[in-house]
Amino acid sequence: MPQEKPATDLASHAPQLLVEGLAVGYGATPVQREVSFSVRPGSIFAIMGASGCGKSTVLKALIGLLRPSAGVVRFGGRDYWAASEASRDELARRFGVLFQGGALWSGMTASENVALAFQMFTSLDAAAIDALVQVKLSLVGLEAGRASLPADLSGGMRQRVGLARALALDPEILFLDEPSTGLDPISARRLDDLIVELRAGFGMTVVMVSHELPSLFGICDDGVFLDATTHTVIAHGSPQVLRDTCPHPMVRAFMHRERPPEPTPGGADAGQ
Amino acid sequence: MATVASTGIGDRPAGWTTRRDGGDTVVALSRDWTTGGTGEGAGAAAEVLETSGRGGLRFDASGLGRWDSSLLVFLAALRVLAGQKKIRFDDAGLPESARRLLALLPASAPPAIAPAARPTFVAQLGGTMIGLGAEGAAVTQLVGDQLRRAGAALRGGSRMRRVDLIGCMYDAGISALPMVALVNVLVGGILAFVGAVQLRRFGADIYVANLVGVAEVREMAAVMTAIVISGRTGGAYAAEIAAMKGTEELDALRVIGIPVQEYLILPRALALTLMMPLLYVYGAAMGILGGFTVAVLTLNLSSQIFIAQTRSAVTVHEVLFGLLKSLAFGVLIALAGCRIGLKAGRSAADVGHAATSAVVVGIVGVIALDALFAVCANALGL
User: Which residues form the domain of A214?
Assistant: First the structure.
């Protein structure tokens, strides 16, 4: 059996992404504070929580779209927000992002959406770029609609093109913002399986924002739970473990689809 | 005999060799196969097949360094070509992760997309004429529909919300006052300067007032105000409606039974049609003020003489003619903006195209319509 050496270095067990004391918000409005967690290389890490708790806002701070008001985000030991703009750009090229709904560039076809990163960041010729684009789109199972504009694609197809675009430069970390929201159960399951296969194939780390329970239980092996009331992390662990063992009433309500606890005047109690 | 080759442009580019083992060809992969180092995967696959025999294809990845999607491009192309030549493709020697990714890719070449046939000149011309005919019919239908709905609205029989009409009138009228004033004051001043240079040669400085008054009231105020409104309001109408189309807001209106023509277009068309004559009067006054300022301050014309000359030169007929033109310009700009917004595509780029088209169509249409008015006025001796 030949030794497997994918481009991404999986030998290290140091956290690939380390978040310490992160505080994010819009203007003077805090959304989350004291958010800390670490993501192991090769894992699928979930950022969980109810709608409106600030999951996507935290994600924005991780991918460089929103400067946190406090805290540190480290990729492979490098402090992202303390780095120069050029260094941040260089780091950003090492991760791919699938935005909610795909966020495809509406004036470009599916193939052109995937090709843009190659055109901007490599010196490959058109034939080589086309070959890579076709492989990326085939990997995500998009056989038809490659020459179509996003407006002419279904929601599931847009998500797949978005995933192919996120995978374009073979990222070390793949960030997914609500990847299966709006998809039917079969398409959502296919997307989950695809994420698992791509993680195994490319050896990359996946950080996923989601509140879709089947996806969380099906593919995630670690995570944090954010709370909208206390504006911070109330539980750490894989979704399965949190479902089975976490005593926090909000986490239990979320994981078991139960009625949430009545909010107390002083705010919810501290979590696990 | 072994074949040795390397591909790519990196410091340690991808490499492969082939050797015979029994009846099979073994492809030994070596060095790094990364996107930054190679883009030759598909071409290399054809070379491998040229040197292989009729037996199967196997792999030796013991010398393989770092790899990413470029290795997949090579392997996928090799598998497709092997399939076409009925050569067995054995991926057992590949890294497990590469095999998993390869399993996600189709084993046969995707069907080629036939390029669209280029239409002949006659076909293009025919298509253009059919398109123009259809557009003409759609515009005629829109104009007729809006006239009918406007009549109903004036009789109080429309579902158009009064708050929408007032909001559109404010946006198209009061919000545009500063820009209309600025443009017309400058145009009036320029007319006074240019007229004075010529008229002074004949000792007829006093007729600067006549020139400014007639030109502003009959021509310039209506046209310049319409151009400003076309760039400002016509473009905004097109962009707003196109954006609503892209986000399916128009579909949401239709499915609950609200006619887009009545909810979106009628208040805009009515507002601009009502506000344009008022803006014209305001613009003409500002233009004469600009000419007055230049004439009094730089040409030493007395203010009383300027006013008297203007009153004698500008007749009610001139004002009515200008009002009629501004009314027509308002209808044109509003309906062009709304129509272009309605037929726009659903992408973000289409919103920009719609806004640009509305401004261009509005300005060109205003000038063409003004020329038509000039020809008609000349024919009727007005």
Answer: 41-56+92-255
Segments of chain B assigned to CATH 3.30.750.24: 3-104
The DSSP string of A143-166 is: -S-TTS-GGGS-HHHHHHHHHHHH
Residue contact B65–A5, C-beta within 8 A:
yes
A228 in a structural domain: yes
Query: How far A140 CA sits from the closest chain B CA (Å)?
Result: 8
Strand partners, B182: none
pTM: 0.71
Closest CA to A165 of B106, B99, B69, B95: B69
8 A C-beta contact, residue A22 and residue A61: yes
Residue A62 counted as domain residue: no
Indicate whether A222 belongs to any domain: yes
Query: How far is the CA of B165 from the CAs of B143, B263, B323, in angstroms?
Result: 18, 10, 21
Q: CA B54, CA B155: separation in Å to the nearest integer?
A: 87
CA distance A147 to chain B (A): 9
pLDDT band at B54 (very low <50, low <70, confident <90, very high): confident
CA A231 to chain centre: 20
A149-198 pLDDT per residue, tens? 888 888 888 988 999 999 998 899 999 998 887 778 888 888 899 899 88
User: How high is the mean pLDDT of chain A?
Assistant: 86
Residue identified by tokens 């999607």 is: B69
Architecture of domain B3-104: 2-Layer Sandwich (3.30)
In degrees and rounded to multiples of 5, residue A186 shows phi and psi of -70, -45
- Mean per-residue pLDDT, B25-36: 83
Would you list which residues of chain B are within 8 Å, Cβ to Cβ, of chain A?
Answer: 9, 34-36, 39-42, 59-62, 64-70, 72-73, 76-77, 93-98, 100-101, 103-106, 110, 113, 246, 345-350
Which residues on chain B are in Cβ contact (under 8 Å) with A201? 97-98, 100-101, 104
List the CATH number of the domain containing A153. Answer: 3.40.50.300
Q: What is the value of ipTM here, to two decimals?
A: 0.73
- In a domain, residue A69? The reply is no
